[in-house]
Design goal:
- The complex is a heterotrimer of chains A (about 210), B (about 575) and C (about 300).
- By secondary structure, chain A is α/β, with parallel strands linked by helices.
- Chain A has a domain of about 120 residues: 3-Layer(aba) Sandwich (Rossmann fold), CATH 3.40.50.
- Chain A is built from six helices and eight strands; from the N terminus they run αβαβββαββαβαβα.
- In chain A, strand 4, helix 3 and strand 5 form a beta-alpha-beta unit.
- Among the domains of chain B are: about 250 residues, no CATH class; about 80 residues, no CATH class.
- Chain B has a three-stranded antiparallel beta sheet with strand order 1-2-3.
- Chain C has about 300 residues and is mainly alpha-helical.
- Chain C has one domain.
- Chain C contains eleven helices and one strand.
- The chains are: A alpha/beta (about 210), B mainly alpha (about 575), C mainly alpha (about 300).
- The interface between B and C is large, with 93 and 88 residues.
- Strand 4 of chain B pairs parallel with strand 1 of chain C.
- Chain A: Belongs to the complex I 20 kDa subunit family.
- Chain A: GO terms for molecular function: 4 iron, 4 sulfur cluster binding; metal ion binding.
- Chain A: This is NADH:ubiquinone oxidoreductase.
């Protein structure tokens, strides 16, 4: 009863607009201290070759070695949606699969279910079986042991279905420089912030983003 | 009457025929059984005629099945003579002929168990309890003779003969403390599946028949009826409970027979104690319908085990076959007491009659039917889980397939019979038919009544038709699914190990550990059947006494069994003639 | 006859179409209490609509039972909605098909077919859930039967509509047997619909009891299973409201039937409020403790039976 009363008293704490975006989880931009052509991955010793020409979101692990040449813009809407599935507009079930992460992506993904972000208001939910899932969220580098499991999970999902690659490791191999995973939706970041994740998910199902 | 003579003649000939040629014996037995069913249907006088139909159907299906099953030289003659004994016991009106039939039915079964035995004591236990049953029944019959001065079944003025004989019949039915008589001979005795079917389905049917017949002739006892009612209720619970934790297919089914016999005994108890005449006749019909439901379904499930390569559900090795899968599911649903099958109607009627009795009594005595009803309700819950376990681990969770047609077809036919039979129960419940044309049921209601006013009503026919009809409508509205085949999702790993039947019931082993005396040792979880361990101790004492005897005479040499059979036959013939 | 058919149609459609809404409202409120904006109250409809359009993945060794079992169970649920007083307070077309106990047996039939259909996938997850459900089935099935009889015995008939009218009399309503049965049935309802403290829907405090039964299904069969789940919760909940907790207010006639749908909505808001408090304040019971929860419900219903005759 105590929990119930507390919950009623506190009211709804979900954000109406993105308000608390951490700067270093957003898009980076060249700030013009030197000539842009002079600043390359080699000169900055970028571990993932994410510079040049320009900033390559898919590879960046936000190590800040390029600072102050590159600085965050505050734009968190970095996700790239290659295929929009309108049928998931109001009901979108996600099955996360960890094929080899450090754990950061998992934690950030988990955060979109918090009262602050609340994925359910957009009709997005987590599920615990691929049979009920509309999208497979894959995190981490493709390790040998998980390759087969990942294939089976994809196979187990009913059509129509999306694959969402979350975080630099899944998209480009990250600092390990392993293979990239083919995905319909790409969410860069290391790890991506809940805002970035939610925005991409909403756009993937035909929304205008967050 | 001609039909009866023909049936008995054919059944009488079948052991002889089986001695010469096994198949011809089974064919004669099938034909005789078919005529027996015909006799029961055409001469339908009271509820006892329904026993003929049920028994005849069991024999018919089992005999036809045996044509494709039996591999042992002596099985045919033994099996057919056992059936002959049952036919004699069912059709006679003479006490001694009944007993003779009862023995002719028991002894071949005993020999079969002796021939197939895995353990020394199984045939012995079966015989011991069989003879205990016979002695009690004999005592009851003798008392009846003393009271009435007649050797035929005749109305009694005292309940004592019924009480004595009832204990005898209850031993045979495997009622509570004697549960061992049901499962042990079948399992440890390793009885062949066709013999298991008649052991479990129709031998107990004969015992129920005797009990019902005696009950019809006896003045209405007060206390004893309630005892039967309560003991039956506890048998339902413990039977279903032990069945649920068994992993041996035949032990499971044997305990399920205990459960069903308990329900039948309860129904007889309601008949004996019913405060109104209407309720009494309702519960009598219920008894007969329950017998029909149990006999058919149990026969089918035992015949099903005949197609298993391994009798342990932990190693599910039934040959997969679509026909037998469907048949098995239908039989199991009846065994679980689900509408619209015969078993569903019987379960419904039994529970209704118990609670109607509680309502009509409306006194402190109501506690007995209420508590019994609640215990039976729990037992029915266990029965559903048990039957699911059987079907899942015998049929669904296995990979090997079989192309066999005939035996699965028999199983399917039995399943369909039991499904359609639910709607045929209208015939038996003739005095209790009702209708409600204003609400769309111009016919086809069975109303449970304790006085002129109905208590409740069901319509098995409508339950048979409507869900499928609505289901078809749903398909029409939403369309058929677009199907893609894929492997089972097993967290990304290939599906190698399947969940076992042991794990399926292990929660209960642990949760109800006090009742099962669950013991967790180094070699896993073990449970104890309290009733059996008690009986076993007594039996061991008995065995040590009679070791010498058993070494000399019961040494599983066939000649001795045959001699014993012939002697028993002669003794009874002499007694009957005299 | 025509009137009865129209009333039946309103009752059945009122069940099938409105049932998901109550789940949506409950989930929405639960979300709000846990500080979230939460999903739309129409979310269950969105989910069903999407699933009906999706492909159905069938495990390679599964048979037709896996695919068409859900259609059958849905059919049985629809049949039950003809039978028990879930909207309209008088018997409607086809109501006498089964009585109260027959209704309980139909619920057992549904769970039997549902389990077989799910197990046909041969999934170990499903087997795990089935084994858990089977462990409590004996108490749940028994309580459903005894609680239905508790009212049958006090009225002398197993007709649920008569029982509803009987309980609306205050002296019968306040009798000890009725109150015990009311509590007992509510505890059973929590178990049957997978509410806390027994089980929780969603991803935290999962009981993996009934949830796992739909683990392998997808597409249309999954939609029907989910929908069936909503209908089951609605049927049992409405029986509890109409026969046990609030047996008052039902109007008769065709127009009355429309009014009854609104009345049911009001009654359901009360039930949802009770469940909301329970679900947001209680923690899940350990698996083996669920047995105690059900045993208490069972014993209460047996006491209710005893009190009603003695």
């Amino acid at each position: 009863m105590n929990w119930f009363l507390k919950g009623v008293r506190k009211g709804v704490r979900t954000e109406k607009t993105p308000s608390d975006v951490a700067p270093w989880s957003t898009e980076l931009q060249f700030k013009g201290i030197e000539e842009e052509s002079g600043v390359t991955s080699e000169s900055l010793r970028c571990p993932t070759s994410a510079i040049g020409p320009g900033w390559i979101a898919e590879r960046c692990v936000y190590c800040r070695r390029c600072y102050p040449h590159y600085q965050p813009t505050g734009n968190h809407r970095m996700g790239v949606v290659k295929r929009v599935e309108k049928r998931f507009q109001r009901s979108f079930y996600l099955y996360p699969i960890d094929v080899g992460t450090c754990g950061a992506c998992n934690t950030e993904l988990r955060l979109i279910a918090s009262p602050q972000h609340d994925l359910t208001r957009f009709g997005i939910f987590f599920t615990n079986t691929p049979r009920h899932a509309d999208a497979l969220i894959v995190m981490g580098i493709m390790t040998k042991g998980m390759r087969e499991a990942f294939r089976r999970a994809y196979e187990a999902m009913p059509e129509p279905k999306l694959v969402i690659a979350l975080g630099a490791c899944a998209i480009s191999g990250g600092i390990f420089q392993t293979e990239k995973i083919e995905a319909d939706v790409v969410i860069p970041g290391c790890p991506p912030s809940p805002y970035t994740i939610l925005d991409a998910l909403i756009r993937a199902k035909g929304g205008r983003g967050w | 009457m001609v039909a009866l003579i023909v049936a008995l003649l054919m059944l009488g000939l079948s052991p002889v025929a089986a001695l010469i040629n096994r198949r011809s014996g089974y064919i004669a037995c099938s034909a005789g059984s078919a005529v027996f069913v015909y006799y029961g249907m055409t001469n339908y006088s009271n509820e006892l005629s329904l026993f003929y139909v049920a028994a005849g159907l069991v024999w018919l299906f089992t005999s036809v099945y045996s044509l494709y099953y039996d591999h042992h030289r002596w099985l045919g003659p033994l099996y057919t003579s056992s059936i002959l004994g049952m036919a004699i016991a069912l059709t006679t009106n003479n006490l001694l002929v009944f007993l003779a039939g009862y023995e002719i039915m028991t002894i071949p079964a005993y020999v079969t168990i002796g021939l197939y035995k895995k353990t020394d004591y199984s045939a012995f236990v079966f015989m011991g309890f069989g003879e205990l049953s016979t002695i009690l029944i004999l005592a009851g019959f003798l008392y009846s003779y003393v009271v009435t001065g007649s050797l035929s079944f005749s109305p009694l003025t005292t309940i004592t003969p019924f009480m004595i004989a009832a204990f005898g019949f209850m031993v045979k039915m495997g009622i509570l403390p004697f549960m061992v008589t049901e499962w042990l001979p079948i399992a440890h005795g390793n009885a062949p599946s066709n013999v298991s079917a008649i052991l479990s389905a129709s031998m107990t049917l004969v015992a129920v028949y005797g009990l019902t017949k005696m009950a019809l002739l006896t003045p209405r006892p007060d206390l004893f009826g309630f005892i039967l009612l309560g003991v039956g209720g506890f048998s339902v619970f413990f039977g279903a409970f032990y069945a649920y934790v068994s992993d041996h297919a035949k032990v499971l089914l044997g305990f399920s027979t205990v459960e069903n016999n308990g329900a039948i005994l309860t129904s007889i108890g309601v008949y004996l104690t019913a405060p109104t005449h209407t309720l009494a006749s309702f519960s009598l019909i219920t008894t007969a319908v329950y017998v029909l439901a149990h006999s058919l379904a149990k026969t089918g499930l035992f015949l099903d085990t005949g197609m298993m390569e391994n009798e342990y559900l932990i190693l599910p090795r039934i040959l997969k076959n679509r026909l037998s899968d469907v048949g098995g599911v239908l039989l199991a649903s009846s065994m679980s007491g689900l509408l619209p099958t015969v078993g569903g109607v019987a379960t419904w009627a039994l529970l209704e009659s118990l609670f109607m009795e509680a309502y009509t009594l409306h006194s402190a005595l109501s506690i007995i039917p209420i508590v019994t009803g609640s215990i039976i309700a729990m037992g029915e819950g266990f029965a559903t889980s048990t039957m699911l376990k059987f079907i899942i681990f015998a049929h669904i969770f296995n990979k090997r397939s079989s192309n066999e047609k005939t035996r699965p077809l028999i199983l399917l036919l039995l399943g369909l019979l039991i499904l359609a039979g639910g709607s045929a129960t209208y015939i038996f419940y003739r005095p209790f038919l009702a209708s409600n044309p204003a609400l769309g049921l111009p016919f086809g209601l069975i109303a449970s009544e304790f006085s002129s006013q109905p208590f409740g009503a069901i319509s098995p026919l409508y339950v048979l038709i409507l869900p499928s009809l609505i289901g078809a409508l749903v398909i029409a509205v939403f369309g058929k699914p677009r199907i893609r085949r894929s492997e089972v999702w097993n967290s990304g790993a290939p599906l190698n190990e399947a969940y076992t039947s042991f794990a399926y019931s292990n929660n209960i082993r642990l949760m109800l550990g006090k009742l099962l005396l669950t013991h967790i040792g180094r070699d896993g979880v073990k449970v104890v059947d309290v009733f059996w361990s008690l009986t076993h101790t007594v039996a061991k004492l008995f065995i040590s006494f009679s070791r010498h005897f058993s070494r000399t005479y019961m040494n599983s040499r066939l000649s001795w069994y045959v001699i014993y059979m012939i002697l028993a036959l002669i003794v009874f013939t002499v007694v009957v003639v005299a | 006859m025509i009137d009865q058919m129209v009333e039946a149609l309103i009752q059945v459609l009122g069940t099938i179409l409105v049932a998901p809404l109550y789940s949506g409202i409950a989930e929405k409120l639960k979300g709000v209490v846990s500080l979230r904006r939460a999903q739309s109250v129409l979310q269950p409809y969105y989910d069903l609509f999407k699933l009906l359009k999706k492909e159905t993945v069938v495990p390679s060794s599964a048979s037709e039972l896996f695919v068409y079992g859900p259609y059958f169970t849905f059919g049985v649920y629809v049949l039950i909605s003809f039978v028990i007083p879930v909207v309209y307070p008088r018997p409607v077309f086809l109501t006498p098909t089964v009585d109260f106990l027959g209704g309980a047996l139909l619920f057992s039939l549904v769970s039997f077919v549902k389990v077989l259909s799910a197990m046909d996938s041969k999934s170990n997850y499903v087997a795990l859930g089935v084994s858990r459900a089977a462990s409590f089935g004996f108490l749940a099935e028994a309580t459903l039967i005894t609680v239905f009889f508790a009212v049958a015995i006090s009225t002398g008939t197993n007709n649920p509509y008569v029982e509803s009218a009987y309980a609306s009399n205050p002296s019968h309503y306040l009798a000890l047997d009725h109150l015990l049965a009311t509590v007992s049935f509510f505890m059973l309802w929590l178990f049957e619909t997978g509410k806390l403290p027994v089980e929780s829907q969603g991803l935290s405090e999962m009981g993996m009891i009934d949830d796992s039964l739909t683990y392998e299904h997808s597409g249309k069969p999954l939609a029907l299973l989910k929908w069936g789940g909503y209908i089951k919760a609605y049927l049992l909940g409405s029986v509890w409201l109409n026969v046990f907790l609030l047996p008052w207010g039902g109007q008769v006639g065709v127009l009355g039937a429309f009014f009854d749908i609104g009345l049911m909505f009001a009654k359901w808001m009360i039930l949802i409020a009770i469940v909301l408090v329970a679900e947001t304040s209680l923690a899940k019971l350990r698996l083996f403790k669920i047995q105690d929860h059900l045993a208490i419900a069972f014993v209460l219903s047996v006491f209710s039976l005893l009190f009603s005759v003695i």
